[in-house]
Here is the input.
Amino acid sequence: MEQTMFTNEVILSWLQYFSQNAPINLAKLKMLDITGKNRNLIPTVMTNRAVLVFTDAGHPDIFYDMWNAELGDCEIWYNEGSDPSGAIKHDKVSDMINRGINASAAMLILNPNAATNYHIGMENSRFSCGSVQYVCREVRAVIMNKLNLRDQDNICIISGESIAVEAAIIAAEGSVIAVEYDRRDQNTMKCNVEKFGLNNVIIVESLENGILDELPVPDIAFIVGSPRIDSEIKSLLAVNPAMDIVIYTLDFEILTSLPALFRENDLERTEAIHIEVSRVNSKKLTEPFPAPWLISGRRKQNTHEFDS
Here is the structure.
């Protein structure tokens, strides 16, 4: 079992404290332990009306970061000290931006404006402006569906900035390795990480020099097709031969090269889909978006049986 300073006994004592002193229904409470972990507080608060947060010392900008993420109207219920006892206080995040957390404790965050209807495929306007041209939200929704991420998955995403953001929110207890070759794209990715309060994203500039050996082993990879795709696949399979791979491409030459590339790396195609999206614009004309291919694959299963 994972070690934490907040044992079941301690958690129960905090639950009792807040149930007696704050306007909260425990049946509707989300709990989040961010002690020494890369857990994403801000996305959790964005999508839950009540979050009980267990935290250690050393978060000097936690309330400023929440305010900067447009969570200033959230209400914080807390006490002074590290024990569930004594008088309780409550203030809006906007009134606490100059404060931090300097001791282990629990706090209750109430967000009356929580987006409890969060769905995959965020509006592009929510992402940081910069060097990146984001895919339309409908295409991103399909991509996220095909990735089929779980909360503890590790994923490597190559040149897919908005995919990395949504993946980090879904795989909240896993890790996202965001590979960005262009320094401008790295900066845009960093801006998105800060904007969404993502603590589980690792930004790297390439897969060279054995960088993957030092990082969480990916369970799945999403690759935007480029001339580097052969070396990228080889690097990824070297650390996890059982990795699932999803490739996005608009490039016809890359698309037609994939069958040979899959054979060379002993991969089998599990799915191939073509996505076309059009919208009616303000002039009542149909406006098409780029129509990518998504090719999914994984290592072939060994079907040989043992000799009797």
User: Anything to note?
Assistant: Residues 303-308 have pLDDT under 50 and may be disordered. The radius of gyration is 22 Å. The first strand starts at residue 30 and ends at 33. The helical segments are 8-21, 41-46, 62-68, 137-147, 161-170, 183-195, 229-239, 252-264.
